[in-house]
Amino acid sequence: MDLTKQTHGEVVVITAGDPRIDAAVAIAFKDQMRDLTSDAPGRVILDLAAVDFIDSSGLGAIVAAMKQLGGGRRLELAQLSPLVGKVFRLTRMDSVFVIHASTEAGLVDATANG
Amino acid sequence: MPLQTDDLDDPLQTDRPVTLVLAASFDLVSQSLATLMRNLQTCGVPQEAGQTATLVLAEILNNVVEHAYRDHADGRIRLELCLRSDSLQVEVTDTGHPILGDLPRGRAAIETDLPIEDLPEGGFGWGLIHLLTRDLSYERSGDTNCLRCQIPLTEEAG
Fold it and tell me: Does B66 sit within 8 Å of A96, measured CB to CB?
Protein backbone atom coordinates (compact mmCIF):
# COMPACT_ATOMS: atom_id res chain seq x y z
CA MET A 1 0.00 0.00 0.00
CA ASP A 2 1.59 3.22 -1.19
CA LEU A 3 0.89 6.03 1.28
CA THR A 4 3.08 9.12 1.57
CA LYS A 5 3.02 11.76 4.29
CA GLN A 6 3.64 15.47 4.12
CA THR A 7 3.31 18.03 6.88
CA HIS A 8 1.99 21.53 6.24
CA GLY A 9 2.34 23.39 9.52
CA GLU A 10 0.02 21.54 11.91
CA VAL A 11 -1.81 19.69 9.13
CA VAL A 12 -0.73 16.20 8.08
CA VAL A 13 -1.51 15.24 4.47
CA ILE A 14 -1.45 11.54 3.53
CA THR A 15 -1.51 10.81 -0.20
CA ALA A 16 -2.71 7.41 -1.42
CA GLY A 17 -0.71 6.28 -4.45
CA ASP A 18 -2.47 3.03 -5.36
CA PRO A 19 -5.62 3.00 -7.54
CA ARG A 20 -7.53 0.59 -5.27
CA ILE A 21 -8.36 0.51 -1.55
CA ASP A 22 -10.16 -2.83 -1.30
CA ALA A 23 -10.35 -6.05 0.71
CA ALA A 24 -6.88 -7.08 -0.51
CA VAL A 25 -5.18 -4.08 1.13
CA ALA A 26 -7.65 -2.95 3.82
CA ILE A 27 -5.64 -4.22 6.80
CA ALA A 28 -2.32 -2.87 5.45
CA PHE A 29 -3.99 0.48 4.78
CA LYS A 30 -5.37 0.70 8.30
CA ASP A 31 -2.03 -0.25 9.90
CA GLN A 32 -0.03 2.19 7.80
CA MET A 33 -2.49 4.98 8.50
CA ARG A 34 -2.01 4.33 12.23
CA ASP A 35 1.78 4.58 11.85
CA LEU A 36 1.60 7.73 9.74
CA THR A 37 -0.93 9.62 11.88
CA SER A 38 -0.08 8.54 15.43
CA ASP A 39 1.89 11.75 16.08
CA ALA A 40 -0.34 14.07 14.06
CA PRO A 41 -1.12 17.04 16.33
CA GLY A 42 -4.25 18.25 14.55
CA ARG A 43 -5.97 17.93 11.23
CA VAL A 44 -5.30 14.98 8.90
CA ILE A 45 -6.20 15.13 5.19
CA LEU A 46 -6.25 11.92 3.14
CA ASP A 47 -5.73 12.72 -0.56
CA LEU A 48 -7.58 10.12 -2.66
CA ALA A 49 -6.97 11.66 -6.11
CA ALA A 50 -5.18 8.52 -7.36
CA VAL A 51 -7.82 6.10 -6.04
CA ASP A 52 -10.45 5.09 -8.59
CA PHE A 53 -11.91 2.12 -6.69
CA ILE A 54 -12.93 1.28 -3.14
CA ASP A 55 -15.19 -1.47 -1.83
CA SER A 56 -16.93 -1.82 1.54
CA SER A 57 -13.74 -3.23 3.11
CA GLY A 58 -11.82 -0.18 1.93
CA LEU A 59 -14.57 2.06 3.29
CA GLY A 60 -14.38 0.24 6.64
CA ALA A 61 -10.60 0.74 6.70
CA ILE A 62 -11.00 4.49 6.10
CA VAL A 63 -13.56 4.63 8.95
CA ALA A 64 -11.11 2.72 11.17
CA ALA A 65 -8.36 5.19 10.22
CA MET A 66 -10.57 8.03 11.45
CA LYS A 67 -11.33 6.28 14.74
CA GLN A 68 -7.59 5.77 15.28
CA LEU A 69 -7.04 9.55 15.20
CA GLY A 70 -8.80 9.82 18.53
CA GLY A 71 -9.88 12.98 20.26
CA GLY A 72 -13.11 13.09 18.26
CA ARG A 73 -11.14 14.25 15.22
CA ARG A 74 -12.76 13.87 11.81
CA LEU A 75 -10.56 12.55 9.04
CA GLU A 76 -10.66 14.89 6.05
CA LEU A 77 -10.79 13.47 2.53
CA ALA A 78 -9.73 15.23 -0.64
CA GLN A 79 -10.52 14.72 -4.33
CA LEU A 80 -12.89 11.75 -4.39
CA SER A 81 -13.24 10.02 -7.76
CA PRO A 82 -16.81 9.39 -8.99
CA LEU A 83 -17.00 5.83 -7.62
CA VAL A 84 -15.37 6.69 -4.30
CA GLY A 85 -17.78 9.60 -3.87
CA LYS A 86 -20.68 7.31 -4.73
CA VAL A 87 -19.75 4.73 -2.07
CA PHE A 88 -19.55 7.50 0.55
CA ARG A 89 -22.88 8.95 -0.61
CA LEU A 90 -24.79 5.62 -0.70
CA THR A 91 -23.62 4.67 2.80
CA ARG A 92 -24.15 8.25 4.00
CA MET A 93 -20.55 8.30 5.23
CA ASP A 94 -20.24 11.62 3.36
CA SER A 95 -22.07 13.12 6.34
CA VAL A 96 -19.33 11.98 8.73
CA PHE A 97 -16.09 12.92 6.96
CA VAL A 98 -14.98 16.42 6.02
CA ILE A 99 -14.72 16.27 2.22
CA HIS A 100 -12.68 18.75 0.16
CA ALA A 101 -12.56 19.21 -3.62
CA SER A 102 -8.76 19.07 -3.38
CA THR A 103 -5.98 18.96 -0.79
CA GLU A 104 -5.13 22.58 -1.69
CA ALA A 105 -8.72 23.60 -0.93
CA GLY A 106 -8.56 21.64 2.33
CA LEU A 107 -5.37 23.38 3.42
CA VAL A 108 -6.91 26.84 3.07
CA ASP A 109 -10.25 25.80 4.56
CA ALA A 110 -10.30 27.82 7.76
CA THR A 111 -13.68 26.41 8.75
CA ALA A 112 -12.36 22.87 9.21
CA ASN A 113 -10.88 22.33 12.60
CA GLY A 114 -9.40 19.38 14.38
CA MET B 1 -10.91 -26.89 -11.64
CA PRO B 2 -8.20 -25.23 -13.73
CA LEU B 3 -7.51 -21.56 -13.20
CA GLN B 4 -8.72 -19.54 -16.17
CA THR B 5 -8.02 -15.93 -15.45
CA ASP B 6 -7.09 -14.92 -19.00
CA ASP B 7 -10.63 -14.62 -20.34
CA LEU B 8 -11.01 -11.16 -18.87
CA ASP B 9 -8.19 -9.77 -21.01
CA ASP B 10 -10.36 -10.06 -24.12
CA PRO B 11 -13.18 -7.52 -24.47
CA LEU B 12 -16.56 -8.93 -23.47
CA GLN B 13 -19.00 -9.39 -26.32
CA THR B 14 -22.70 -8.75 -25.95
CA ASP B 15 -24.75 -11.88 -25.21
CA ARG B 16 -21.67 -14.12 -25.17
CA PRO B 17 -20.99 -15.44 -21.63
CA VAL B 18 -17.46 -15.73 -20.28
CA THR B 19 -16.47 -17.93 -17.38
CA LEU B 20 -13.52 -17.73 -15.10
CA VAL B 21 -12.51 -19.80 -12.13
CA LEU B 22 -10.36 -18.18 -9.53
CA ALA B 23 -8.77 -19.26 -6.29
CA ALA B 24 -10.69 -17.74 -3.39
CA SER B 25 -8.39 -14.99 -2.16
CA PHE B 26 -8.83 -11.25 -1.71
CA ASP B 27 -5.72 -10.66 -3.85
CA LEU B 28 -7.01 -12.64 -6.83
CA VAL B 29 -10.46 -11.06 -6.58
CA SER B 30 -8.81 -7.63 -6.57
CA GLN B 31 -6.58 -8.40 -9.57
CA SER B 32 -9.39 -9.98 -11.60
CA LEU B 33 -11.72 -7.06 -10.97
CA ALA B 34 -9.09 -4.46 -11.86
CA THR B 35 -8.80 -6.25 -15.22
CA LEU B 36 -12.59 -6.42 -15.59
CA MET B 37 -12.96 -2.70 -14.89
CA ARG B 38 -10.58 -1.88 -17.79
CA ASN B 39 -12.33 -4.46 -19.97
CA LEU B 40 -15.77 -2.88 -19.41
CA GLN B 41 -14.38 0.51 -20.43
CA THR B 42 -12.94 -1.03 -23.61
CA CYS B 43 -16.42 -2.41 -24.37
CA GLY B 44 -17.93 1.06 -24.25
CA VAL B 45 -19.73 0.65 -20.92
CA PRO B 46 -20.03 4.12 -19.29
CA GLN B 47 -17.13 4.49 -16.88
CA GLU B 48 -19.13 5.04 -13.70
CA ALA B 49 -21.52 2.17 -14.51
CA GLY B 50 -18.56 -0.16 -15.11
CA GLN B 51 -16.97 0.87 -11.83
CA THR B 52 -20.24 0.34 -9.98
CA ALA B 53 -20.60 -3.14 -11.51
CA THR B 54 -17.06 -3.92 -10.39
CA LEU B 55 -17.95 -2.76 -6.88
CA VAL B 56 -20.96 -5.12 -6.74
CA LEU B 57 -18.81 -8.04 -7.93
CA ALA B 58 -16.16 -7.19 -5.32
CA GLU B 59 -18.79 -7.36 -2.57
CA ILE B 60 -20.19 -10.69 -3.82
CA LEU B 61 -16.78 -12.34 -4.36
CA ASN B 62 -15.25 -11.04 -1.13
CA ASN B 63 -18.25 -12.44 0.77
CA VAL B 64 -17.46 -15.85 -0.71
CA VAL B 65 -13.79 -15.57 0.31
CA GLU B 66 -14.61 -14.29 3.79
CA HIS B 67 -17.70 -16.31 4.71
CA ALA B 68 -18.39 -19.29 2.39
CA TYR B 69 -14.72 -20.32 2.42
CA ARG B 70 -13.99 -19.08 5.94
CA ASP B 71 -12.23 -22.35 6.86
CA HIS B 72 -11.12 -23.53 3.40
CA ALA B 73 -7.55 -22.87 2.29
CA ASP B 74 -8.05 -23.82 -1.36
CA GLY B 75 -11.58 -22.78 -2.33
CA ARG B 76 -12.47 -22.03 -5.93
CA ILE B 77 -14.99 -19.48 -7.19
CA ARG B 78 -16.62 -19.77 -10.60
CA LEU B 79 -17.73 -16.47 -12.09
CA GLU B 80 -19.90 -16.33 -15.19
CA LEU B 81 -20.54 -12.95 -16.77
CA CYS B 82 -22.71 -12.08 -19.72
CA LEU B 83 -22.83 -8.56 -21.10
CA ARG B 84 -26.37 -7.59 -22.13
CA SER B 85 -27.42 -4.40 -23.89
CA ASP B 86 -28.04 -2.52 -20.64
CA SER B 87 -26.85 -4.80 -17.87
CA LEU B 88 -24.27 -7.32 -16.76
CA GLN B 89 -25.69 -10.75 -15.96
CA VAL B 90 -23.80 -12.42 -13.12
CA GLU B 91 -23.65 -15.96 -11.76
CA VAL B 92 -21.25 -16.81 -8.93
CA THR B 93 -20.86 -20.40 -7.71
CA ASP B 94 -18.75 -21.86 -4.93
CA THR B 95 -18.67 -25.00 -2.81
CA GLY B 96 -18.23 -23.33 0.57
CA HIS B 97 -20.60 -23.01 3.51
CA PRO B 98 -24.22 -22.23 2.61
CA ILE B 99 -26.04 -19.00 3.41
CA LEU B 100 -28.67 -20.07 5.94
CA GLY B 101 -32.09 -18.48 5.82
CA ASP B 102 -32.77 -15.31 3.86
CA LEU B 103 -29.97 -13.35 2.21
CA PRO B 104 -28.49 -10.90 4.71
CA ARG B 105 -29.83 -7.36 4.24
CA GLY B 106 -26.67 -5.67 5.46
CA ARG B 107 -26.91 -1.95 5.94
CA ALA B 108 -27.34 0.47 3.07
CA ALA B 109 -26.57 3.60 5.03
CA ILE B 110 -25.51 4.62 8.51
CA GLU B 111 -27.66 6.48 10.94
CA THR B 112 -26.60 10.08 11.02
CA ASP B 113 -25.26 11.78 14.15
CA LEU B 114 -23.45 8.71 15.45
CA PRO B 115 -20.39 9.51 17.58
CA ILE B 116 -17.19 8.71 15.68
CA GLU B 117 -16.27 5.86 18.01
CA ASP B 118 -19.62 4.15 17.30
CA LEU B 119 -19.39 4.27 13.49
CA PRO B 120 -19.68 0.82 11.89
CA GLU B 121 -16.67 -0.48 9.95
CA GLY B 122 -18.55 -3.31 8.21
CA GLY B 123 -21.91 -4.66 7.15
CA PHE B 124 -22.14 -2.47 4.04
CA GLY B 125 -21.42 -5.19 1.49
CA TRP B 126 -24.88 -6.78 1.38
CA GLY B 127 -26.56 -3.37 1.58
CA LEU B 128 -24.68 -2.27 -1.55
CA ILE B 129 -25.44 -5.56 -3.34
CA HIS B 130 -29.19 -5.21 -2.72
CA LEU B 131 -29.14 -1.53 -3.68
CA LEU B 132 -27.18 -1.88 -6.92
CA THR B 133 -28.60 -5.09 -8.45
CA ARG B 134 -31.93 -6.45 -9.64
CA ASP B 135 -33.25 -10.03 -9.78
CA LEU B 136 -30.94 -11.08 -6.96
CA SER B 137 -31.37 -14.76 -6.12
CA TYR B 138 -29.53 -17.48 -4.22
CA GLU B 139 -29.84 -21.23 -4.22
CA ARG B 140 -28.01 -24.06 -2.54
CA SER B 141 -27.91 -27.22 -4.60
CA GLY B 142 -25.98 -30.19 -3.23
CA ASP B 143 -22.67 -28.76 -2.05
CA THR B 144 -22.85 -25.72 -4.31
CA ASN B 145 -23.90 -22.13 -3.67
CA CYS B 146 -25.18 -20.15 -6.63
CA LEU B 147 -25.85 -16.41 -6.51
CA ARG B 148 -27.35 -14.70 -9.55
CA CYS B 149 -28.15 -11.07 -10.28
CA GLN B 150 -28.29 -8.38 -12.95
CA ILE B 151 -26.25 -5.21 -12.59
CA PRO B 152 -27.66 -2.26 -14.57
CA LEU B 153 -25.05 -0.60 -16.80
CA THR B 154 -26.86 2.58 -17.76
CA GLU B 155 -25.46 6.06 -17.07
CA GLU B 156 -27.93 6.77 -14.32
CA ALA B 157 -27.46 3.37 -12.60
CA GLY B 158 -27.33 3.76 -8.87
Answer: no
> Is residue B4 over pLDDT 60?
no
Give the pLDDT confidence of A13-45 residue by residue, as tens digits: 999 999 999 999 999 999 999 999 999 999 999
The torsion region of residue B123 among left (phi > 0), alpha (psi -120 to 50) and beta comes to left
Summarised one tens digit per residue, pLDDT across range A85-110 is 999 999 999 999 999 999 999 999 75
- How many residues make up chain A in this entry? 114
Using a CB-CB cut-off of 8 Å, the residues of chain B touching A91 are 107-110, 124, 127-128
Q: Is B2 exposed, middle or buried (0-12, 13-18, 19+ CB in 10 A)?
A: exposed
ipTM of predicted complex: 0.93
Q: What is the pLDDT of residue B9?
A: 79
Chain A positions in Cβ-Cβ contact with residue B27 (cut-off 8 Å): 24
Residue-wise pLDDT tens digits, B34-68: 999 999 999 999 999 999 999 999 999 999 999 99
Query: B-side interface with A, Cβ within 8 Å?
Result: 26-27, 29-30, 33-34, 37, 47-48, 51-52, 54-55, 58-59, 62, 65-66, 107-110, 112, 114-117, 119-122, 124-125, 127-128, 131, 158
User: Residue A73: phi, psi to the nearest 5?
Assistant: -75, 140
